[in-house]
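1st attempt posting a full record on here, be nice pls
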Amino acid sequence: MNESPPRIGVTRWEDLPGERIEDYWRRIEEVGSEPLDLRGVETDVSTLDGLVLTGGLDIAPERYGQEPHERTVCAEPARDAYELDLLHAALAADLPVLAICRGSQLLNVALGGSLLQNIASANHRADYKTEGMPSRWHSVRVVSGSRLRGLLGVEEMEVNSRHHQGVLAETVAPGLTAVAISPDGVVEAIESDAHRWVVGVQWHAERPEPEYPDFAKLSRPLFQAFVDAVTRQLEEVH
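the predicted structure (as tokens):
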């Protein structure tokens, strides 16, 4: 059995006000894994045991065949290219993938889906006018029989929300299934039907959100299940 902690690649690029890469690292360390900072560095997925795709600015709409909306704020083209190449390699290797916020959107785009570039309601966006840029909150319904429902153990939960783009039922990529949905119909989580463990969530599961202590408790099983999947695959190899 492999004695060293699993090596989890964590992508990032621009630093965003109100968000911290350290929150991702802390969550990964809490469940016994080693986060590796992938800030655009050349990476061979064979050196990784799992991949976490993080939040960030918008994916270029050209990646899914659309013209930019006036409110779309694209990340650097190099980030899109880097993360898409890395994700495709991880999927080809059947590496466990946990995709968060932008990461979940990227997963959908990578497999041939598209995005709603701007959600009309502001209920999904962080409160950028208040000091600290707190999250907004809404409920999601978790689909019965899904992997996510099994690991979270709840039919409905309150999640934080810090995005203005999203996936809709009609834009989900082939091979992915919508497994959590907000009351206004935005797809809040997706799972791959063709891989052993690939899950994307639109909410920021990594954030501690100290004013909502139950959120961190409910989110921990997501990271634990991800690392458990990594560990199982390592044990199969060794």
